[in-house]
Amino acid sequence: MPIQLVEPGQTPDLHDTVKGVVVGIDLGTTHSVVAYVPDKTPEVIGSLIPSTLSLEEEGFCVGDISASGRLSSTKRLMGQNIQLKLGSHSLTSVEVASHILSHIREKVEKTLGVSLEAAVITVPAYFDEAARVATKQAAALAGIKVLRLINEPTAAALAYGLETGAEGLYAIYDFGGGTFDLSLLKLQKGVFQVLATGGDLALGGDDIDHALAAAHKLTCDEARTLKEKLSQLETYEGITLKDLEAIAHPFVQKTIDITARVFKDAALNPKDIQGIVLVGGMTRMPLVRQEVEAFFGKMPLCDIDPDRAVALGAALSAHGLVNGSDTLLLDVTPLSLGLEIRGGLVEKIILRNTPLPALASQEFTTQEDGQGGMVIHVLQGEREFVQDCRSLARFELKGLPPLPAGMARVRVDFAVDVEGLLTVSAIEKTTGLSQHVEVRPSSGLDDKTLADILLESQKYGREDMERRLRAEKQ
Amino acid sequence: MFDPYEILELEKTFNIDLNALEQAYFAAQRNTHPDRFALADEAKKKDVSRQATLVNKAYALLKNPLDRATYLLEAKGVSLLTHDPEFLPKVIEWHERTEAGEDIMSELAREEATLLQELTQALEDHQDEQAKKALYRLNYVQKVKK
After folding, report:
1. Interface contact A166, partner B, CB < 8 A
2. Considering only CB atoms, which chain A residues are within 8 Å of B39?
3. What is the pTM of this model?
4. Of A177, A194, A337, B132, which has the most beta carbons under 10 Å away?
């Protein structure tokens, strides 16, 4: 089938349709950063914003790290249906994220004096479907149009590559407050091609803080301060760098194990790498740098601010999407996608590290004579058994034609878009009577709940606005 | 019909310069990648996303020599082998030696290289029967290696 090609550079001129500013947002576990491209070079707007939510007299407050009873590190719960308590309020991680994003929007609009038109928001490369959908929901609640989600290591590579003109194979080692990602990219003039990615959603600086707090009977805040001080000092408050490293080592080793696995996936050797780009606050720890250097046999590159690289890359991406760009970003799916088959096993339909967008199909048949329906259970993960994978969606394909066992032919299509979001459809094709069911998996919040929250946030949004206007008049 | 060569605008040969293939892939993605149509309407976005998917599929297929050979033979209407009695003694021998604890990886790698050469030659000379055999055996050797 011939593909219809369009003229190169035919991205419609979007200047006319975009009136406000477009930004890149790194919605981080510990802190969030927003950046934009005023001319050609990306710039961070303001400073790092702690990703915390607390209650003050005037209402919700983002970024006050001295507030007692604040919610923090809620990014780790994205996509999970867990209610968090804040005073008399009960919130999901999506709602917390939407407060942080609203705060960012207000800050951008106040600083630049124009409205925030749209944003590229970054997510850990290893974020699953539910967490990606949750991030988009949070943006919708905050009234931010999402141009695209991009993966954090890919954003960092974009910032690094465009700034330095680097070419060749690069590893992005992104060790943040909550998550670890490792991506291997091939950089060429104008092309950023992710070859393989891997990570752990529950492996970050927070885990080291918790372990440190437990070992030395500290609060998590104290443990974090201690960890940061010991990046520069040998001892602090009677605890030595060696003590910290003993606790941190197993976590750092885990990142190295994941890194080795990604190389295996990509059939590449650490020696093939031109450079290692460090991203995320944890890469300030001397132990992390030593271990990375030992694995690669090469000094990692430190000429990029590990806290700001992701936001700067996201800003470049947003700018390129709206103004047209010669830069091509080719990313992959981090986790395999599949269906439940007999015996509680998972049949993989799209394997991890498949370039996006991707489409794959699989045919299934009935097990019993006259079987009228079929349950389609969509899963994400690398393990063989259903209970070890993340369940994304389950639906029943009804009204199958009455046929002997093994005669019905049901084709299930998996489509993953460039943001890593999945659409599943199933078609019964034996009799020409085809059924088509589209599923947009999401967990945590259903559309009804989301609509309620949206209404509520608009209500409170107006109240907040009125309160602010009153305050300004006084 | 899905034709990876046509999608990437490449000549229909088994021998492919991998650099040229990659450049053809990037060129096609420049025209179809959804990022180039970020603010287009939904219908257009859907259309380019489908095209970009096919470009990815074409690239993945052509990158792999076995998939490439399979495609070329099937496109010609050649049905592939499902078994190869002449190859069986070798299969049994490898199996026995592996069972006995012998490491045959380097031998398999040599076998793989030889077979790939045979396959290339057969496809160039349009010797479909030989190509079928070499392809079947190569698939087998790669499975054993894993």
Report:
1. no
2. 12, 14, 17-18, 321-322
3. 0.87
4. A337
